[in-house]
């Protein structure tokens, strides 16, 4: 069987477990190295009752040694020393490019960055011209479970914590900006809005379809004639069991590859309070839904951006998200979390910029000495590294807070702080990178990496999910409310 990155392998054995061995297994589970799934296991075969898809079921590997999980002769993991008559329970082991490693392990061992800086970087050369992702990109993302990893287990995902998701995203953000934009959205708002605010009926029908990109969404909030908050002009008028939507959206990402759109519209035009808007989960094949082309972007190419136009678009009330009048709350909470994902995207890019800057500084010789030994260059590297470390600390702090309480008191404030500081960090780091490279950094082809593309790509994130001024307004509002205090988890 050919190796598949990020595939799941199942070890099925049966028997009794003593207290000591149970302690070993529980400890493994606590450290998230193994995740159990509901199965019926027998001596001669395995029957899966869990959420694994057909492709994963085909990847089941049977092992002769009950104390070890093996693949192609390599030990993936040892659950316990084999004891005659006491066999290990059925476990699922996450395997990525190297057997036995979950996405987080792959990130730590440099294998996920290898995907981002290898195949993804290579296909980006064509994407820079066509501004369109090839089918190969989506296939590779599916094969590597980059749509699946952030989903809860009940929907066929891996049940990772927010902190783990952020750490994985940091690594694939080292690649092309457009792919980062697509994959960071896939790991967050793409499925999370429906999970948080969709009806039980909608979730039962669609949530498990996110794991392999059977469905994808776009987030349609911004308008050319308004903004991204309460001052929207798109309307949704109730008509029996339906809503009739009219209006336009602007600068909407992922419209070229989505099956549904999260659309926000005015349902209570007479209100000047937070209940003015409502959110909807709109199938893009609904009559009256139209995509309006926009020019190519400076960077992050391949991620489709267009306008949307709704003309007498009739939508059944079952597609309402949450309650009528809850739209602003849904939008702001979703943006808060996504801002932290923008921050970790900037972190991944800044880290790569620092690394290639150091390599260039070590190789570039002037007056008989590599410029990395020059005090001026050392000051730049020290500044870059310090800001990157500070940003990583902020992002990890947010992840811990979110895992403790997704609607916690400081979530919105800390997310805005993360995004604001990440903008300043990646701006400074990219400028210093270009100075360290000198003129050669201004050219497209560079043996150290895509310096000029990184410089362009990172600037899109100054604006995604709100410009710096928006972040400062959000931070100031919350800081005043909290009397200048922030709380941290132990």
Structure commentary:
- The protein folds into 4 domains: 94 residues, no CATH class; 105 residues, Butyryl-Coa Dehydrogenase, subunit A, domain 1, CATH 1.10.540.10; 109 residues, Butyryl-CoA Dehydrogenase, subunit A, domain 2, CATH 2.40.110.10; 153 residues, Butyryl-CoA Dehydrogenase, subunit A, domain 3 (Up-down Bundle).
- It is globular and about 80 Å long.
- With 490 residues, the protein is α+β, with helices and mostly antiparallel strands.
- The strands form 6 sheets. It has a 4-stranded mixed beta sheet with strand order 8-11-12-15. A 4-stranded antiparallel beta sheet has the order 9-10-14-13, with no helix packed on it.
- The longest helix is centred in the C-terminal third of the chain and has 37 residues.
- It has 14 helices and 17 strands.
- The two termini are 46 Å apart.
- Helix 7 packs antiparallel against helix 10 and helix 12 runs antiparallel to helix 13.
Ends apart, CA distance between termini: 46 Å
As for the number of domains, it is 4
Mean pLDDT: 81
Shape: globular
Assembly context of the chains = single chain
Beta-strand portion reads 15-25%
Biggest β-sheet description: 4 strands, mixed
In spatial order, strands of the major sheet run: 8-11-12-15
CATH class of the largest domain: Mainly Alpha
The CATH superfamily of the largest domain appears as Butyryl-CoA Dehydrogenase, subunit A, domain 3
Number of strands: 17
Spans of at least 5 consecutive residues with low confidence: 1-101
Q: How helical, in percent, are the residues? A: 40-55%
Query: Pairing-aware structural class of the strands and helices?
Result: alpha+beta
Radius of gyration (CA) equals 24 Å
CATH architecture of the largest domain: Up-down Bundle
Query: How many helices in DSSP terms?
Result: 14
